[in-house]
Write a structure and sequence with these properties.
mainly alpha; 86% helix; 7 helices; 222 residues
Length: 222
């Protein structure tokens, strides 16, 4: 059993390292080279799947440890966002709303509500302040995202392909923010505490906003 867990940990670290390379490359090629973006994006997607499922296995082994509770929340957010990221491309190409779209949306809502509850509970327990704040930040982000996602699902018939592209970019960057935060909290101890906990958000949210505004401008022009 211990050997299996060590193998899973090695796989988790390898896949996580891959996302740290493929994530920025996919962002870089987003408007520069569609072919390279798709190729790197697929690698990023599968690496994220491995990271998320291996993190869930880690939680099942130590469910009482707050870090693994946080990893579980991050893993579920990553799964919801990469699922939406893939589905938005299919919808952009003419697919219709499927039951699966409501499944990952519901999963996102439940994860956000659970992380908010964990934030409140750990505040009450006097847990080291960083984790309750992290739970709360990601919970609020997830719940706001659920509301936006519901709007897209209700109005999908009137959506422009650039609207779907904007949602695709936002979803994949959100998954990357979540995964990178888990990495910096766990491994980047050489950074100041505030950069370990909030650095990925501070660095990547402006990128997310930039892509959103650029695609919105393209949508208006179209």
């Amino acid at each position: 059993m211990e050997l299996l867990l060590k193998i899973i940990l090695i796989i988790h670290i390898s896949a996580g390292s891959s996302t740290l390379i493929t994530g920025p490359l996919a962002i870089f090629y987003n408007f520069k080279d569609a072919k390279k973006h798709r190729l790197i994006g697929k690698t990023f997607f599968y690496a994220m799947l491995v990271v998320a499922f291996s993190a869930i296995i880690g939680f099942l082994k130590r469910p009482e440890v707050i870090f693994y509770q946080f990893l579980l929340g991050i893993a579920l957010l990553v799964l919801a966002n990469i699922a939406r990221g893939v589905r938005t491309i299919m919808l952009m190409k003419g697919d219709t709303i499927k039951r699966f779209d409501y499944v990952y949306s519901t999963g996102l809502a439940l994860t956000g509500a659970w992380m908010l509850g964990m934030s409140i509970w750990h505040f009450q327990q006097g847990t080291m302040i960083a984790f309750p704040i992290l739970f709360g930040v990601f919970a609020v982000g997830a719940l706001v995202d659920v509301r936006r996602n519901g709007k897209f699902l209700r109005n999908y018939a009137t959506m422009h392909r650039l609207d779907w592209m904007a949602l695709h970019a936002s979803s994949m960057i959100s998954a990357f923010i979540a995964s990178t935060t888990a990495f910096t909290v766990n491994a980047a101890h050489f950074l100041p505490w505030y950069l370990q906990w909030f650095g990925p958000t501070l660095l990547l949210v402006p990128v997310q906003i930039y892509f959103g505004r650029k695609l919105k401008a393209m949508r208006v022009k179209a």
